[in-house]
Write a structure and sequence with these properties.
This protein is of the alpha/beta class and 491 residues long. The chain has 2 domains: 408 residues, Rossmann fold; 73 residues, Peptidase S8 propeptide/proteinase inhibitor I9 (Alpha-Beta Plaits, 2-Layer Sandwich). It is built from 14 helices and 19 strands. Strands 6, 7, 8, 10, 13, 15, 16 and 17 form an 8-stranded mixed β-sheet that branches. It has a 4-stranded antiparallel β-sheet with strand order 2-3-1-4, with helices on both faces. It has a 3-stranded antiparallel β-sheet with strand order 12-11-14. The longest helix has 23 residues. It is globular and about 65 Å long.
Length: 491
């Protein structure tokens, strides 16, 4: 077995994460492609003549979110198009249409000979045999699993992600396939062909060989990622609005990227003219509107903090760096922030790792920051030894039973547990721990009072009942502490 060199991996992760987050994959331009624009109107509802406005400017609408006042559009004459839009009284701002990525830390693939050697002693009961250190920590060894769970089926957690395996034996019965949706163009269902969404769902509410934080809660998929793991922001914006309209109680967003607080400028390749996209970057305005819409509808929105090992409380002016990596004519002026993690109202979650004698340490890849992190939760990383004991400190959860899961430590997980389970690590794995605790608390309050707490009440209660870690009181690594579902239901 080869050793894991964490410091080298951290450096590699730092570089690759920023490249994934900052690259405008959706708007990358070649000689044969037209750029994609995000257009935000002054009204938070699209004007009735929005398509006419775009067409008269020389563009074509490719996607729209009417309740956020946002469209995506393309044009063969981008400079003329931007000039015309920015002169229109109903248009607030224009920016490139950006993608989000399922950006997880990379962990070495286990030696396949070692994985094969494990098949002689397969694990039958994952939960009872102690393979879920993360859920044990958050639930006080399962003490919260059966507390006040009668109303959990009436609480819906919307997972905006890559979809679900609706037939997974540990999820079936608690997933709402009929109410799930896809926002990926040219797809017709919300089945998972990536594994990320199914893994997140298992951490929230699995009940079978493995356990989630809140068994019995209703899980609903809002698919925005395809198999390759890229999603246009406007699909995500649409999914947030839809989940809120569908009556979701919690939205889990184990995804992210970076966005500009400032101004975008576009240089017309035909004329060399530099055109302003408006004072408030359209991409971050769209996120703000969608999140605020959901919160106003009573939805608790939970987000991963990101996997770049960055202090996100101090948005350094990396505009020059960002501009140097762009090839599409766009130039950014201002500060870059992580989204949705740094959108107001979002419960932002950092990741902890197990092993090395403690489960209360920031995972090497996790973002952090004073005032930027609300809660910490287990996200996992490799433990102190090679082999199965190292993998055990990643987060084990459900993956699609119809996929041959070979990513990361997949071969080892398959050898130990059979098809349908896998290890992952990242703040993506930490966020659903908080979403599960939020859902359990909402269900308890609904059962006891007949009404559901609002997002601010949910966030405040989870923060007040978290396990203080690190510095006494609030700190930049774990926020108000490590989330604890048992405390949330008993205090």
């Amino acid at each position: 077995m080869k050793k894991i060199f964490l410091y080298g991996l951290m450096a590699l992760l730092f570089i690759s994460s920023f490249n994934l987050n900052m690259t405008n994959s959706a708007a990358e331009v070649t000689e044969n492609e037209s750029p994609l624009f995000m257009v935000v109107f002054n009204s938070e509802n699209l004007p009735k003549n929005a398509e006419d406005i775009v067409e008269s400017a020389g563009g074509e609408v490719t996607y729209q979110v009417p309740k956020a006042g946002v469209i995506e559009a393309t044009s063969d004459t981008p400079g003329k198009f931007m000039n015309a839009l920015m002169k229109h009284k109903d248009v607030q701002s224009v920016s490139p249409s950006l993608e989000e990525q399922l950006d997880l830390p990379e962990f070495d693939i286990v030696d396949r000979e070692f994985a094969t050697s494990l098949e002689a002693n397969p694990v039958e009961n994952i939960w009872e045999d102690g393979w879920q250190w993360d859920i044990e920590q958050v639930t006080n060894d399962g003490a919260s699993h059966d507390l006040d769970r009668e109303a959990r089926e009436d609480v819906v957690v919307a997972v905006i992600d890559s979809g679900f395996d609706f037939n997974h034996p540990d999820l079936a019965g608690h997933v709402d396939e009929e109410g799930s949706r896809t926002f990926v163009p040219d797809t017709t269902n919300s089945w998972d062909y990536n594994s990320h969404g199914t893994h997140v769902a298992g951490t929230i509410g699995a009940e079978g060989r493995m356990k989630g934080v809140a068994p019995g809660v209703t899980l609903r998929s809002y698919r925005v990622f395809g198999a390759s793991g890229g999603a246009s922001q406007i699909w995500i914006t649409d999914a947030i609005i839809a989940a809120a309209d569908d009556g979701a109680d919690v939205i889990n967003m184990s995804l992210g990227g970076t966005r500009l607080r400032g101004q975008w400028f576009y240089t017309d390749p035909a004329t060399g003219e530099r055109i302003s996209g408006g004072n408030s970057a359209a991409d971050i305005v769209a996120y703000n509107r969608a999140i605020r819409y959901a919160i106003d509808k009573g939805v608790t929105v939970v987000s991963s903090a990101g996997n770049s090992a960055q202090d996100i409380s101090n948005p350094s002016k990396v505009g020059d760096w960002q501009n140097s990596s762009r090839t599409d004519g766009w130039e950014a002026k201002g500060a870059v922030v992580f989204v949705p993690a740094q959108i107001p109202g979002v419960v932002t979650v950092s990741a902890t790792g197990g092993g090395f004698g403690t489960e209360d340490r920031l995972a090497f890849y996790s973002n952090y920051g004073n005032g930027a992190i609300n809660l910490g939760a287990p996200g996992g990383d490799l433990g102190p030894e090679d082999g199965e004991s190292a993998s055990k400190y990643l987060v084990l959860s459900t993956v699609p039973t119809y996929m041959d899961f070979t990513a990361g430590r997949g071969p080892e997980a398959k050898a130990l547990f059979g098809q349908g389970y896998g290890w992952k690590g990242g703040t993506s794995m930490a966020a659903p721990q908080v979403s599960g605790a939020a859902a359990a608390y909402i269900a308890q309050q609904y059962e006891e009072t007949g009404s559901k707490p609002n997002p601010r009440q949910v966030q405040t209660h989870l923060q007040q009942t978290a396990v203080d870690t690190g510095k006494t009181g609030y700190d930049e690594y774990y926020g108000h502490g490590i989330v604890n579902a048992y405390n949330a239901l008993t205090r």
